[in-house]
């Protein structure tokens, strides 16, 4: 685990290892080796691992054995000699997890390219994968010279197995839905990930990324691919990833105009759930001159026979009034309201929540008091939860040598191709940087 002393490792990766060890999907044998620039001795490191495991109630002889045998090496992971020391500490085929900033990951991969790696070595890379389409292609070339594509796991925890299978199961096992899943019947699609959390001490990463790169370029485009792809022949890696790649190759900014098809904003001081929050520009570690956005919206089109003319709005923001993490499929209105009915018939909407995974269908029915009036009802159900949380699923795929739920190299490049025109327009200030108070629903000038 490169970058083992960082926030990602302590908050997500180590707890996920603990959960995996406590489940039936855990690897038969595992040695945990941490590495980073910080100086830890093994006692300090093992206490950190044990504390992370305790947050998910991971316990038992096997967990205790992993903790007791875990080691930490202070290393510059961009230097081949230091990486060789790490590999020498591994008894089996290593899975190298890059819990590092993108620039450091690229340098570490370049160092690995100079080395002879053990057979079966897997590389696990966090998003963002590069900083634009060209750098993603360069990084693909580097790591492609190190190990084969099926041993590269580009992590997107939104692709946890339960979320993916729930969405695909809903689409492709219900005769009621799939015939309607096209521009003939669907008016628009919204994929939204709003959260009340602010920066939360992540300025070092987030101020160089922003909402567009942090969420839309990676996570939400992966969700869009699952919503829009044609039925795969199977759920095996090649078929599923081929269909996702086809959908993303057809995706582009609405009408080819990133200025009119995108919006950006950042939060000012406000209050969320009784807690005061400073403005983003005043957060420690933030450079206001970067004009980093904390709320981003982009409207895209998928230029295929199935989806021609349907707008896909992808939105993600921080420090908003409430968390909203859902896919909203809005169907077209009926051609006309029957004579004699009163009221206004709203469009049928299918809402698929992400975390917790939940399904809701908004329909029009006759009202309880006036049978000629139109009323609204929601049918809802919970999806079955997965056996593991998202990062546990990621690690299980790595240990099982299963790349099905990881992002393929060509797909990673396509995601950058889609958003690069928007990023360029924003850097040129062709799209204004609006503001909204923390704890609000967004800028008052935006239609909600």
What does this structure look like?
- With 448 residues, this protein is α/β, with parallel strands linked by helices.
- It folds into 2 domains: 149 residues, Rossmann fold, CATH 3.40.50; 261 residues, Dihydrodipicolinate Reductase, domain 2, CATH 3.30.360.
- The chain has 12 helices and 17 strands.
- The strands form 4 sheets. Strands 6, 7, 8, 11, 12, 13, 14, 15, 16 and 17 form a 10-stranded mixed sheet that branches. The protein has a 3-stranded parallel sheet with strand order 3-4-5, with no helix packed on it.
- Helix 1 packs across helix 2 and helix 9 crosses helix 10.
- The longest helix is centred in the middle third of the chain and has 19 residues.
- The mean pLDDT is 91.
Using the coordinates shown, work out and report the CATH topology of the largest domain: Dihydrodipicolinate Reductase, domain 2
* Number of separate structural domains: 2
User: According to CATH, what is the class of the largest domain?
Assistant: Alpha Beta
Number of discrete helical segments? 12
The largest sheet is: 10 strands, mixed
> What distance lies between the first and last C-alpha atoms, to the nearest angstrom?
42 Å
Proportion of beta-strand residues: 15-25%
Within CATH, the superfamily of the largest domain carries the name Dihydrodipicolinate Reductase, domain 2
Radius of gyration: 23 Å
Q: In terms of per-residue confidence, which ranges show pLDDT below 50 for 5 or more consecutive residues? A: none
* Shape, principal axes of CA atoms: globular
How much helix is in the residues? 25-40%
Order of helices and strands: HEHHEHEHEHEHEHHHEEEEEEEEEEHHE
Mind telling me which CATH architecture of the largest domain this is?
2-Layer Sandwich
Mean pLDDT, to the nearest integer, reads: 91
Quantity of strands, as a count:
17
Structural class: alpha/beta
């Amino acid at each position: 685990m490169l970058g083992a002393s960082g926030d990602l490792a302590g908050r997500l990766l180590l707890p996920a290892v603990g959960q995996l060890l406590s489940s039936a999907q855990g690897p038969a044998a595992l040695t945990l080796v941490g590495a980073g620039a910080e100086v830890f001795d093994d006692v300090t490191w093992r206490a950190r691992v044990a504390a992370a495991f305790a947050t998910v109630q991971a316990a038992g002889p096997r967990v205790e054995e992993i903790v007791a045998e875990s080691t930490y090496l202070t290393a510059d992971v961009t230097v081949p000699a230091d990486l060789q020391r790490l590999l020498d500490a591994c008894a089996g085929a290593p899975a190298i997890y890059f819990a590092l900033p993108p620039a450091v990951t690229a340098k570490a991969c370049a160092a690995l390219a100079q080395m002879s790696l053990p057979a079966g070595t897997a590389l696990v890379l966090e998003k963002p994968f590069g900083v634009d389409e060209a750098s993603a292609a360069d990084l693909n070339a580097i790591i492609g010279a190190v190990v084969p594509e099926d041993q590269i796991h580009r992590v997107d925890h939104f692709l946890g197995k339960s979320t993916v299978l729930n969405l695909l199961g809903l689409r492709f096992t219900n005769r009621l839905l799939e015939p309607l899943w096209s521009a003939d019947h669907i008016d628009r699609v919204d994929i939204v990930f709003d959260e009340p959390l602010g920066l939360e001490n992540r300025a070092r990463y987030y101020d160089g990324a922003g909402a567009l790169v942090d969420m839309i370029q990676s996570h939400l485009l992966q969700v869009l691919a699952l919503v829009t792809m044609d039925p795969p022949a199977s759920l095996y890696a090649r078929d599923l990833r081929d269909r996702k790649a086809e959908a993303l190759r057809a995706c582009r900014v609405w009408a080819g105009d990133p200025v009119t098809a995108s919006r950006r904003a950042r939060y000012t001081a406000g209050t969320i759930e009784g807690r005061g929050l400073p403005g983003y520009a005043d957060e420690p570690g933030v450079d206001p001159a970067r004009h980093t956005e904390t709320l981003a919206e982009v409207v895209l089109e998928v230029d295929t026979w199935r989806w021609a003319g349907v707008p896909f709005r992808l939105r993600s923001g921080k420090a908003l009034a409430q968390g909203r993490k859902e896919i909203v499929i809005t169907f077209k209105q009926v051609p006309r309201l029957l004579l004699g009915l009163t009221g206004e018939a709203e469009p049928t909407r299918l809402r698929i929540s992400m975390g917790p995974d939940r399904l809701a269908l908004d329909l029009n029915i006759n009202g309880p008091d006036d049978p000629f009036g139109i009323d609204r009802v929601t049918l809802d159900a919970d999806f079955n939860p997965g056996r593991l949380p998202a990062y546990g699923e990621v690690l299980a795929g790595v240990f099982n040598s299963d790349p099905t739920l990881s992002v393929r190299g060509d797909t990673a490049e396509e995601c950058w191709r889609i958003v690069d025109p928007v990023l360029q327009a924003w850097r040129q200030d062709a799209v204004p940087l609006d503001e909204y108070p923390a704890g609000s629903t967004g800028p008052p000038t935006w239609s909600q």
